[in-house]
Amino acid sequence: METMIRMKNIKNSLFLGALSVAALTSCVSENVELKDGKEKGTMELSVDIAQPSSRALTDVSNFPVIIYDSKGDRVFSYNTVMDVPAKITTNVGNYRVESHTPGVIQKKMTYPYYQGSTDVEVLEGITSKVDVICKMQNSIIAVNYGQDFTDALSSWEITLNDGSGTALSFKDTDSKDPVYWYFGEDGVQQLKVNFRGTANDGTEVSAPEYTLTKDQADESYDDDRTNFSGGDYLKINLTPVEKEPGKITTITINANVTFTETGETVNVVVVDKPADSGQGDEPGPGSDKITLNLPQDMTVNAATDKSLGDTYIKCEDGIKSIKVNIQSSSDEMMESLEDLSDGYGVDFINGAEIVGNDDLIQLFDDLNQPLTVPTQGDIDYTFPIGNFFGLLAFLSGEHTFYMTVEDMNGNKKSGVLVLTVE
Predict the structure, then answer these.
(1) E strand residue ranges, 300-379
(2) Residues 161 and 263 both lie in one domain
């Protein structure tokens, strides 16, 4: 019954901007009931971040604080660091203290997300000092280019793929502000970079697919630096190349990484391979046997014809997987997607599997937007992205759908659709 009520609440509030941020309200100040007859000790807590250069810009006073016992049960929690008393009296034992930036980390953000934890043993009659040092969990990614680049191209897009199924793109219409990107808890070994553009004379400008790996940098790292991970500041530099006077035919890419904890900057050597003419991030051999007909990017509202969002998919060797990732410039949209993951187990943020997903059927039935899903081995299927039109109409911004199709032989094809709500 509790689950049904929670799902009903999600349905009623979904995409309407009325959802509260669950993570901001999950840590309510509370005290564990101390057991009589147990020895007592105290803790003094402090919270800070690891990056010295960012301390003046990051206010940790609003970070929630949670304390767990040795069984993993939460025994103390506080809305903010400011709510933590000068001393916490508790039973003797082992504890883990955690703190983080308010909210839940997302794949793409506009600000840094910090998190840290430390273990402490509370002894009888002793005050234990606990220092929680929070490290940056996401990375900063920026694309850098000069006036010669913007003068040469009428439009362009660069796409970064970290293998997670969710790609990050920068377009000529975007600002040059960096984004904060989460590579995952363990980071990633490589980053693939693709570029497509149009010169001012209308000719297509492309570049080889570049692969960035940190072990190709001009200096070595500690063992925990071999992957792109939280705290990295990756800057990708774009330069146009003139094969003949006044004619731009390609671009070159180089990159460097700055470690925000130390301020050290090193160059990353990029490796290129010939640009692939196939569609998507991982066309590969055999991708010609896959059809993925995504609609053109469009502006939508509640009255937009749903059929305009139909995405036709065909795999000659049978469909194995269809993954859909959604990223949005709307914080309310991202919060709603997080809520869907919690309530239905449909995780569009990190990639929702469409094939055989009964939870997805239930979700859209509850939203009065019924759909069917394929089973493995089916030859073709139409995914109705138009089911989102009426829901997205309440949330202005850009909502980006990343879709990756895999056939039974492991061939893949990917595509991107951007829905804009004004």
Answers:
(1) 310-315, 319-328, 352-353
(2) yes
At 358 the pLDDT is 93
Q: Could you tell me if 326 and 335 are in contact, meaning their C-beta atoms sit under 8 angstroms apart? A: no
Using the structure block, give the residue that is written with the tokens 């040795």.
70
Average pLDDT over residues 179-201: 88
> What is the Cα–Cα distance from 98 to 290, expressed in whole angstroms?
46
Domain that holds residue 363: 287-421
Per-residue pLDDT at 141 exceeds 60: yes
Q: How far is CA 216 from the centre of its chain?
A: 25
**Which residue do the tokens 């991107």 mark?**
416
User: What tens digit of pLDDT does each residue of 320-368 get?
Assistant: 999 998 888 787 888 888 888 888 889 888 789 999 999 999 999 888 8
Single pTM value for the model: 0.57
- Is residue 235 in some structural domain? yes
Look up the CATH number of the domain holding residue 99: 2.60.40.1120
State how many domains the chain has: 3
CB 382 within 8 A of CB 313: yes
* 292 and 411 share one domain: yes
Q: What is the pLDDT of residue 261?
A: 65
Among the listed residues 176, 162, 140, the one whose alpha carbon sits nearest the alpha carbon of residue 259: 140
CA angle 342, 32, 44 (to 5 degrees): 100
The amino acid at 220: S
**396 in the same domain as 293:** yes
Residue 27 has pLDDT above 50, yes or no: no
Residue where one domain finishes, among candidates 273, 298, 328: 273
Q: Are residues 261 and 380 in the same domain?
A: no
3-class SS of residue 13: helix
Instruction: Judge whether 411 lies within some domain.
Output: yes
